[in-house]
User: Fold this.
Amino acid sequence: MKKTLQYFLLAFGALLLMPKLHAQISKAPKDSVIQLYGVVMTSDSLKAIPSTSVIVDGKGRGTITNYDGIFSIAVLKGDRITFSSIGYKDKTYEIPSNLTDNQYSLIVLLVSDTNYLPAAILKPRPTREQFERDFVNTVIPDDQYEIARQNTDESKRRALLAALPADGREAVNYQLRQQANRYYYQGQLPPQNIFNPLAWADFIKAWKRGDFKSKKSSSSDSGSY
Assistant:
């Protein structure tokens, strides 16, 4: 009986407080979050500009437009929004602070940003014979020729291939090849290279190049020091 009386008093008190709570909520300021959406187009031809950056200044937030130039982002009242795209001038809009709705739409027209480069005039040789004469008589400095010769030397390329570490792309490709090889021979024994004629051909070529001799001599030289 006492519990029933307590529940009744609580419900009666809540009914009395509801009008006051409703009045307080109605007087409270509305949420300042605004859903900003719109489309970004060119000012001259009204074509959609995809991948346009939509940045909220000073907030470190933003988005980009889709293929049709449409965007949507949550912002606050009073925020400054900058639209930027390569080849167009930036444009900045400020969200009004006195908005009564929680949505705001924009049609952004970007103006082309034209950069004028200095004129380049291409003048060919008057005749083919003069071009061949100038091409043959072109003097290449000895140092650049020597650098080019060393870069194309087979021994140097093999040394660089053995010394330089693999980059990310090469490492991923090697890992994928190893994984594909395991899947290919899953459930069976992989072939042995001792019975592979291609492996024997590579071994003979390496022997003729002197790869094993160079390694042996380098190890002996390092031991002599």
Observations:
- Residues 2-27 form the longest helix (26 residues).
- The CA atoms of residues 159 and 215 lie 11 Å apart.
